[in-house]
Write a structure and sequence with these properties.
7-stranded mixed β-sheet; 11 helices; binds pyridoxal-5'-phosphate; Kynureninase; pyridine nucleotide biosynthesis; kynureninase activity; pyridoxal phosphate
Length: about 375
Amino acid sequence: MSVPGEVNGGFATGDLIHLNGNSLGPPRTDLLDRLGTVVSEQWARGQVRAWFRDGWLDLPRTVGDKLSPLLGAAPGQVVVAGDTTSTTLFNALVAACRLRDRPVVLVEGDAFPTDLYLAASVARLLGRELVVESRDGFDAYLGEHGDRVAVALAAPVDFRTGRRRDIGSTTALCHAVGALSVWDLCHAAGVLPTNLDTNNVDLAIGCGYKYLGGGPGAPAFLYVAERWQSEVDFPLAGWHGHAEPFAMTPDFVPATGIDRGRNGTPPLLSLVALDHALDPLVAVGIDELHRRAKALGEAFLDALRPDVEVVSPRDPDQRGGHLALRVPDADAVEHGLAERNVLVDARPPDLIRVAFAPLYVTPEHVRRAAEAIHSVLSPPN
Ligand SMILES: *Cc1c(COP(=O)(O)O)cnc(C)c1O
């Protein structure tokens, strides 16, 4: 049973041009087959036994290992525990703070709102001070007051403008002053190489439903560098993070390895959907995905009238997988484009984002999208 509608590269795109890859893109056409097999062959036949006999209990880790090459991580360091990005970030931030008895949690003011809210909440909870800095101020603060910083939270791709922050040099800056780095990879995973191991990243989290294509509400992932795994103390000490969950002992003994980052019973069908979405991404590989996204971005810019203001860096190596355009009224442009079957997302008041998910967006799509933008911005008289 395949998902009906027009198909692009094995994705059920319908007649939509999806440039809103920062949210929810189309499913693969054979997703229903995969979910159907799990429901009828595993769930219906095995029922509760399927947790043990069909690998369900291991899925948070097997999906994590499948995702690892896209992140530049050796196996055993990524887990998809089944929680939201926000919950996973909370878990990572508290755990990172517990590794450094210092007063400050540092974050960029342009961070995604949930990151700001959670950093503030974690600081409040643990009696630390939240320091919010501009992009340049972030580096300057590390340079001048780095010995006060417990944890610096950063993102390799600015969610509004697409501007990149270099993971390697920022992490090195944190380490030089004895701070830990926590990376939010939401807008990088699946489109930009992050090389977590070679960049010496401490902890990272990211979203399953953006470029990874895991579907509505797909669970988030957590990376913990191997060197921290025996030390890290997560606040969400749920029974699936226990060394022996089924021993049902009263005391929490954390699992060795990345299983420590697990929490409770995972949302199995959502994990299966994410697992399924990862196959073509892993097959293509992160370097090629990045190359394709860059080529699509360049084709889009070539087709765009020069009077449309591009807020993102023009150099494709200075941005992630999306571009931001300044328009008079972002919501109106988003709606006008949607009427023309082009999905973008508005960041009011005056930005729209166009994202180039490399597996289902085509060069033809980006040319048609540019035309649609021109016609919405200056409708024919
Ligand atoms: C999309 C996104 C989230 C989403 O958080 P959820 O808990 O999954 O809703 C969080 N942080 C960043 C940076 C994002 O881009």
